[in-house]
């Protein structure tokens, strides 16, 4: 399978290294702006500002896409959804196995912890431009869905007011070279449950993106998630 890597930053370079070491796939493109690259699939670790042009290129050339970039708005998400009616797309803010398992865990236990306050804390390196992280947003979404979409998202807190029982606080920390850490904390009366995932290397995201690329082989147009890739 011939792979076009969209983006030339740190994560894309790690993906390139992983693919070259594995030897099963062939890299036929490595660029921030796609022009005439040919391949069987596009794996994207770019900047969200570059997504619209990449999506247009993928649809125009009938190339499936694995989109791992975060920070895009609802307009870009709409473009991704529309494009998935033409080509198969895996959309994931986090491609590692452990993080996707954590999504399933918190979705299962949240409905069982009636009356618990829920907080999400995410930590990343000081070069990450978007906050909260796409993974933190995904954690909120899966918990909210498990709780019948009754929860509201609060980005940090300030001022003088009591915490609402139907809110989930999402807090972002940026510093140093932290690859990524996500915590979901359930605060009850006299007990605390904490579910945490820590990434110590970007290699896990590259390995997951490769799995997603292989998953798309022969798939019909549609929008797929890592849960389907790993099932």
Question: Layout of helices and strands, plus pairs?
Answer:
Blueprint: E1 2-6, H1 10-22, E2 26-31, E3 41-44, H2 51-60, E4 65-67, H3 74-83, E5 88-91, H4 97-109, E6 117-124, H5 134-146, E7 152-155, E8 167-174, E9 180-188, E10 191-199, H6 203-215, E11 222-224, H7 226-230
Parallel strand pairs: 1-2, 1-3, 3-4, 4-5, 5-11, 6-8, 7-8
Antiparallel strand pairs: 6-9, 9-10
Helix pairs in contact: 1-6, 2-3, 4-5
Query: Which structural class fits the helix and strand makeup?
Result: alpha/beta
Helix content: 25-40%
Q: What letter string, H or E per element, gives the SSE order?
A: EHEEHEHEHEHEEEEHEH
Measured by DSSP, the beta-strand proportion falls in 25-35%
Given the C-alpha coordinates, what overall shape results?
Answer: elongated
Query: Could you name the ranges where pLDDT drops below 50 across 5 or more consecutive residues?
Result: none
Outline the biggest β-sheet: 6 strands, parallel
How far is it from the N-terminal to the C-terminal residue, by CA? 22 Å
**Radius of gyration, whole Å:** 18 Å
Whole-number average pLDDT? Answer: 95
Would you give an account of this structure?
It is a single chain. The chain is of the alpha/beta class and 231 residues long. The protein is built from 7 helices and 11 strands. The chain has helices at residues 10-22, 51-60, 74-83, 97-109, 134-146, 203-215, 226-230, and strands at residues 2-6, 26-31, 41-44, 65-67, 88-91, 117-124, 152-155, 167-174, 180-188, 191-199, 222-224. Strands 2-1-3-4-5-11 form a 6-stranded parallel β-sheet, with helices on both faces. Strand 1, helix 1 (10-22) and strand 2 (26-31) form a beta-alpha-beta unit. The longest helix is centred in the first third of the chain and has 13 residues, at 10-22. It starts with a strand and ends with a helix. The mean pLDDT is 95.
